[in-house]
Amino acid sequence: MTLHVNNADASNQGKTHPRNNQWRDGYNHYGKISRTLHWLTAVLVILQFSIVLAWRGTGKNTITLFLDSIGPHGSLGLLILAVTLVRLYWTWLNRKQRPPKAPGLGGKVAHLVHISFYALLLFLPAFALLRQYGEGYEIRLYGMTILPEAERHIAWMVAPADLLHSPLSWLLAGLMIGHIAMALIHRFWFKDNILARMAG
């Protein structure tokens, strides 16, 4: 008896092909959802730093009040935390079909930097929101109450942000500048497709 095997089936045996779905990640690119979440995070973080630096540099004026109306510090922090949680969940869902990590020391450093990004994007807003609640203020998102104010001062909620929020914020800023610089180096110096994976 002769066993007939379809050529297409035979060629697919033992191989794992990236999905054609543009919304999901693939082995050579990040999907539309990953790219949207990435650039949304970038916009929120840059806006957060821009408002803080504007207030520190110029104080209260028409521009800083306008920026603050667009992105209140607490509301932006809450949005950054929410988007980061969604990114982590989406990363886990796509963990078996994402672009592979670069080999060698450079790949290990890049992986460590990305882990640091996620950790900072989680802990920075979480510490700040804990401090806000622990100091007796309600948690609000653009005027909408998310969590009513605490009845008393809660020291253990306030302490982590008092100790770590400012230095970790500047660490995040440094990593972000380095991240942008390396993306541009890959694009214009190495001329590889690293940036294209996330830029589409």
TrEMBL record:
Transmembrane segments annotated in the record for this chain: 37-58, 70-90, 111-130, 170-190
Listed Pfam families: Ni_hydr_CYTB (PF01292)
Keywords, ordered alphabetically: Cell membrane, Electron transport, Heme, Iron, Membrane, Metal-binding, Transmembrane, Transmembrane helix, Transport
Domain of life: Bacteria
Cofactor: heme b
Domain Cytochrome b561 bacterial/Ni-hydrogenase intervals: 29-198
Mode of membrane association: Multi-pass membrane protein
SUPFAM superfamilies: Transmembrane di-heme cytochromes (SSF81342)
Subcellular location: Cell membrane
Region span, Disordered: 1-23
Chief subcellular location: membrane
Family: Belongs to the cytochrome b561 family.
PANTHER family listed in its UniProt record: CYTOCHROME B561 (PTHR30529), CYTOCHROME B561 HOMOLOG 2 (PTHR30529:SF1)
Protein name, UniProt field: Cytochrome b
